[in-house]
Amino acid sequence: MEIKKLTKVNLIFGYTDVDYFKVLEDVIKKDPNSIINEIIDSGLKGRGGAGFPTGLKWKFAKEQVSDKKYVVCNADEGEPGTFKDREIIEKVPEKILVGMAICAYCIGADEGYIYLRGEYEYLAPQFEKKIEEFVNKLKTINFNFKITLYIGCGAYVCGEETALFESIEGRRGEARNKPPFPTVAGLFNKPTVINNVETFVYTTMICKLGVNEFKKYGTQDSRGSKVFSVSGDTLKPGIYELELGMKVKDFVEEFGDGDTKAVQIGGASGICIPRKDFDNVIIGFEGVPTGGSIMLFNSKRSMFNVLHNFLEFFCEESCGQCTPCRVGYQQLLKGIEAVKKGEKPASYLNELKKLALTMKIASKCGLGQSAANPFLSIVDNFIEEFIY
């Protein structure tokens, strides 16, 4: 397995002296299929966490025959511990818009939506101004692409792509059944490409710098770099763009406080890596993928309290549509409380593990399906903190 040392990169926030509208003008002179093939060749995977190949998603949408197609930018960023997208929106909004326009050109869409997290409403006035300027500029090159900024209401479930569609369409945010997938029947039941903020920016940078420059970073399975929101017990909290493929050990040596006992990768729904595994786990798609949140915890932290907080959050944010998620999270929360109080034996944690695995299989969307990640990784590695 290819392993990279921790390397700081500046693709997202760097190259600020570039005319990115000119990048778009150059792109639309090329055949859409050639652009899609470049994105496929780059190895770019969705930076929202799921890691689906971006170029393939665009290819599937382009192949659909429809009178209408959409491009949607997911800027909901509701995962606890994640705060990178707001920085991207504030500092390099044009890169996002150009990426969306490139996608629209490739798949044949004439309309796009940006779904902005409700808590980021303060960003809307300036962002809307940038969008209006960009769309008006598109008219000067006869590029017909309308972009609408839609502000959510703070529901965590709307970070799931189909629940996001429901919200834009004016309904309660609840996940849809799949298939059909968004590239076939997405927003308003039309073929849709949905990518997150960071993915669209990397699309712009690939078109500007070229595939080979992008592929210089990362590994065979995790091409490029990634923007991380670093928080917790760290001397260097903040936002950093790092090359993918590094060991957790290298990350901890750079950002830890000298007493890091656990690293939560991927936010509340992610996986907790204990100190004993720091040297064995890779941050990337071949190891532990992440939407961008990395939280560090030192020996003063109670991992019981950490998991308890996560479960409280999930109980609150479950949309209630399916029983495994709605009831399952409540039972996991009550269960660890009962074990901690001595009302249930330690062996009861094994029953809760079975429940978490069942939720992973039976829940309708990623919220319920992610239950096993933090629960199993924290309970398995820090069981002593639950029974004493």
Written overview of the protein:
This protein is α/β, with parallel strands linked by helices. The protein has 3 domains: 20-214, Rossmann fold (3-Layer(aba) Sandwich), CATH 3.40.50; 225-298, Ubiquitin-like (UB roll); 303-387, NADH-ubiquinone oxidoreductase 51kDa subunit, iron-sulphur binding domain (de novo design (two linked rop proteins)), CATH 1.20.1440.230. The protein is built from 16 helices and 11 strands. It has helices spanning 20-27, 32-42, 54-63, 84-91, 93-107, 124-139, 161-168, 197-209, 211-214, 248-255, 303-317, 323-341, 348-362, 366-369, 372-381, 384-387, and strands at 70-75, 111-116, 146-151, 192-196, 225-232, 238-243, 246-247, 260-265, 271-274, 282-283, 293-298. The chain has a 5-stranded mixed sheet with strand order 6-5-11-8-9. Strand 5 and strand 6 form a beta hairpin. The longest helix is centred in the last third of the chain and has 19 residues, at 323-341. The model has no long low-confidence stretch (mean pLDDT 97).
Number of helices: 16
Instruction: Give the % helix.
Output: 40-55%
Beta content comes to 5-15%
Q: What is the CATH architecture annotation of the largest domain?
A: 3-Layer(aba) Sandwich
Poorly predicted runs are none
Give the overall shape, derived from the CA principal axes: globular
Helix-strand string? HHHEHHEHEHEHHEEEHEEEEHHHHHH
In the sheet with the most strands, the strands line up as 6-5-11-8-9
The major sheet is characterized as: 5 strands, mixed
Q: Give me the CATH superfamily of the largest domain.
A: NADH-ubiquinone oxidoreductase 51kDa subunit
Radius of gyration: 21 Å
CATH-defined topology of the largest domain: Rossmann fold
* Total discrete domains: 3
Alpha-beta content class = alpha/beta
